[in-house]
């Protein structure tokens, strides 16, 4: 008596499943990518009609630029002012051993500590013998390092924040940021509206056929945009250790930008 009831039930389930059509306005969720609400899809389709040739639209782009004093420069300046004593003969004792090093330049107390530690290390590893020429090369490198171009007196920090909306299904939004050695791309985050997170990314040097490269670098990352109306907030910071190299403000224009705000925060102490 059970079979007449079971077979129609199974048949009904099979046919019902075949007849159901996907509703484009149902909420879409993918743990690896995004959460898209029905209202977002409708809004995305409206933007798609307004910008039929665009794959993405940036609805709001905010750029803030802050300036601050560079602590590395302040430390460098203090070291320059402190380098007043000329050491001709450096003599000291440690662990019942006496050391003597001939110098012919000005050094700070911090540099003298480095010289002593290096000499003691070479003395111990060489069983009481230190190669004078090699040690003089070390001193020359120390002088070269301290006489190199000083760090910038002031730093600048660009804070980028914008909202991207996809106007296509199954799109991939990529971010490529160029910067130079010494500069930093910091605190990069994607946010689908459920809290920001740091995505995986690549950092590469520019090169040609694996032969030529310079100190320019490229930061790249991307995220999936599964449907029309998918949204992602993008936030990151670009730090310049010397603000004199931040002479041009770049606002990405790969995609249509509906609204842009640029703010320069110049402190009172900055001339």
Short description, anyone?
It is built from 5 helices and 13 strands. By secondary structure, it is α+β, with helices and mostly antiparallel strands. The chain has 2 domains: 149 residues, no CATH class; 75 residues, no CATH class.
Q: Can you lay out the helices and strands and say which pair or pack?
A:
Layout: H1 3-19, E1 28-29, E2 35-36, H2 38-50, E3 56-69, H3 71-82, E4 86-94, E5 97-106, H4 109-125, H5 132-146, E6 154-166, E7 171-180, E8 184-191, E9 202-208, E10 212-225, E11 231-240, E12 256-257, E13 260-265
Parallel strand pairs: 3-12, 3-13
Antiparallel strand pairs: 1-2, 3-6, 4-5, 6-11, 7-10, 8-11, 9-10
Characteristic terms for this protein:
271 residues, alpha+beta, 2 domains, 3-stranded antiparallel beta sheet, 5 helices, elongated, disordered N terminus
Give the terminus-to-terminus CA distance.
94 Å
Helical residue percent band: 25-40%
SS-based class = alpha+beta
- Domain tally: 2
What value does the Rg take, in angstroms?
A: 31 Å
What is the succession of H and E elements? Answer: HEEHEHEEHHEEEEEEEE
**Shape annotation:** elongated
Beta content:
35-45%
Q: How confident is the prediction overall: mean pLDDT?
A: 78
- Summarize the biggest pleated sheet: 6 strands, mixed
Annotation field: number of helices? 5
| Counted beta strands | 13
Low-pLDDT segments, ≥5 res? 1-33
């Amino acid at each position: 008596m059970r079979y007449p009831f079971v077979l129609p039930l199974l048949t009904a389930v099979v046919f019902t499943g075949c007849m159901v059509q996907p509703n484009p306005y149902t909420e879409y969720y993918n743990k690896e990518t995004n959460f898209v609400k029905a209202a977002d899809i409708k809004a995305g389709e409206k933007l798609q009609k307004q910008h039929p040739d665009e794959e993405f639209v940036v609805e709001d782009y905010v750029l803030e630029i802050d300036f601050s004093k560079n602590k590395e420069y302040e430390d460098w300046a203090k070291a320059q002012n402190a380098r007043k004593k000329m050491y001709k003969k450096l003599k000291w004792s440690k662990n019942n051993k006496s050391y003597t090093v001939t110098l012919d330049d000005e050094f700070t107390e911090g540099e003298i500590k480095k010289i002593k530690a290096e000499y003691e290390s070479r003395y111990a590893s060489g069983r009481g013998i230190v190669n004078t020429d090699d040690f003089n090369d070390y001193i020359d490198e120390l002088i070269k390092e301290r006489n190199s171009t000083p760090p910038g007196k002031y730093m600048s920090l660009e804070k980028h924040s914008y909202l991207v909306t996809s106007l296509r299904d199954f799109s991939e939004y990529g971010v490529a940021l160029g910067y130079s050695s010494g500069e930093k791309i910091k605190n990069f985050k994607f946010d689908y509206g459920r809290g920001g997170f740091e995505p995986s990314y690549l950092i590469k040097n520019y090169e040609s056929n694996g032969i030529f490269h310079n100190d320019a670098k490229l930061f790249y990352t991307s995220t999936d945009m599964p449907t029309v109306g998918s949204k992602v907030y993008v936030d990151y910071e670009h730090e310049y250790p010397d603000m004199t190299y931040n002479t041009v403000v770049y606002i990405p224009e790969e995609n249509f930008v509906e609204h842009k705000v640029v703010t320069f925060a110049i402190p009172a102490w900055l001339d």
